[in-house]
Amino acid sequence: MNAQLGNTANVGNQITNNLSNAMDKLPSQESMQQGIANLGNTLQNTTSQLSNTFSEFSKQSATVPEATTGFLQSNTIIAKFAFIILVLIGMLVLLNLGVILISILFGPSDSPYLINGMIDGNNSMVVRQDPKQGAATTILRSNNEDSGAEFTWSSWLYINDLGNQDEKYQHVFSKGDGQFDSVTNLSSMNNSPGVYLEPKTNNLHVMMDTVKYGDTNTSVVVENMPIKKWIHLAIRLQNKIIDIYVNGTLSKRIVLSNVPKQNYSDVYIAQNGGFNGKLSSLRYYNSALNVFEINSIVRKGPNLTVKDGNLNTNYFSYLSNYWYYSKTH
User: What sections of the protein cross the membrane (predicted)?
Assistant: First the structure.
């Protein structure tokens, strides 16, 4: 009986010990409270992060319309700037067109007549080049294009008689300073060009000065010009080449050694007694006319409209070209 009681007591002690060990393994109350606190902190942090995420998204959503508006405003500024640029370009184009139109209407002609009619070869004239002076006929200098300077002088000549002075050249016309040698009557400088009749001959002397002082290769002579007939003379310059056309036919050519010298001086006609004959249709062209254009001028004939009140037109024979042109024009 005592043995059974002892066994029962042992069993009871083992159960008590086991329960005590189990209770020791369970977390304490403080541990439970700390775990609950940690769980609360975790939930709070998660909630805070989610709140911050939604706040940032809301801010970005709110700034999208502002960004779109700014982008649209920037486009409007660019469009306005481009429009202003286009307006300025249009104004510049219109301004250039206006300047061109004004120069065409009121500016000097590219191919002006210096004598649009007929004058006596002894009638001294000066065609002024300064547009500020009255009755000026301004000749624009040739532009140096790819082929160099170029121009053409066109005129009709009627030579009545040869000169009777041994050394004096008869002056037809020249563009220069108007200073002539007292003996030869040749312009001392600035023949651009200069046209003369040689003393006591019917040879035509054409001069074209160059930029080199003392250059001797500046003149060309056309021999045996017709007497008592209307003849057309064309002086054509292209770069350094001077061609002399008589009645539409190339008569002489000279290649200058240096660049031709242009000037802004006046045009002098029939100076110091001029020549014994008539001059008609003196014209300047700002380009080198080709042979077809020159022959077109020849076919039209001289303009016999009298520009000189002292010119006597009654003594010409009906066999002369002057009589023929006066009856048909």
Answer: 81-106
Task: Tell me how far apart the alpha carbons of residues 10 and 8 are, in angstroms, rounded to a whole number.
Answer: 5
pLDDT single digits (tens) 28-38: 555 555 655 66
Respond yes or no on whether the N-terminal peptide bond of residue 260 is cis (omega within 30° of 0).
no
Binning pLDDT at 50, 70 and 90, where does residue 290 land? very high
| pLDDT score at 268 | 95
3-state SS, residue 146: coil
| 3-state DSSP assignment of residue 177 | coil
Residue 143 has phi, psi (to 5 degrees) of -75, 135
Alpha-carbon separation of residue 133 from 111, 174, 208 (angstroms): 19, 20, 26
Q: 27 — phi, psi (to 5°)? A: -65, 150
Instruction: Extract the tokens encoding 145.
Output: 């294009």
DSSP for 97-135 reads HHHHHHHHHHSPPSS-EEEEEEEETT--EEE---TTSTT
| Mean pLDDT score across all residues of the chain | 79
pLDDT above 80 (res 251):
yes
- As to burial, measured by CB atoms within 10 angstroms (0-12 exposed, 13-18 middle, 19+ buried), residue 170 is buried
Handedness of CA 54, 55, 56, 57 (dihedral sign): positive
